[in-house]
Amino acid sequence: MARYTGPKSKISRKFNEEIFGPSKALKKKSYPPGMHGRGRRKKQSEYAVQLAEKQKAKYIYGVLEKQFANLFEKAHRKGGITGENLLVLLESRLDNTVYRLGIAPTRRAARQLVLHKHITVNGEVVNIPSYSLKIGDAVAVREKSKSLEAITTSLTVRNARAFSWLEWDAAEMVGKFVSAPQRDQIPEKIQEQLIVELYSK
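Structure for Small ribosomal subunit protein uS4, as requested:
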């Protein structure tokens, strides 16, 4: 499966959640897309519910199937609660951290910034969106990219809400991954236990 580039509102309506941020379409049409969207909804099987939760997580974080399966395997091997480990690994991705720091308005935009070499990790340019950050890593805007309009605009309207596992120095445009997030600190509405149950079949 290729990375999804279709209508964002369609996915938001499918899951009845603002997957890619605020959606006007979701408010206007609070039913699933397609010709049967308004009809009576069948009761979903246990498998369908679990699969939908996995797909939702993949869409939120912009991860492909193989990447997601690899992350799950890594989370499972780590010890502890597999579902929480999975979310921590997803949150530790470079593109997600760039988004959380407010350098980009969406994860998709953060991915583009990373791919186009506007972001550094510990002073070195990293252009791999899936790069996994470690505690203590410094994520910064590259010196010659600090005046880029897309970045300055995003930082101007940056969400005032701070994430406790990240630090941000606005003057230097440098963020720090100070700790692994706890499950109750991650705002995404994902029922990770359903994903664990799906992969356990």
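The chain has two domains: 8-89, 93-179.
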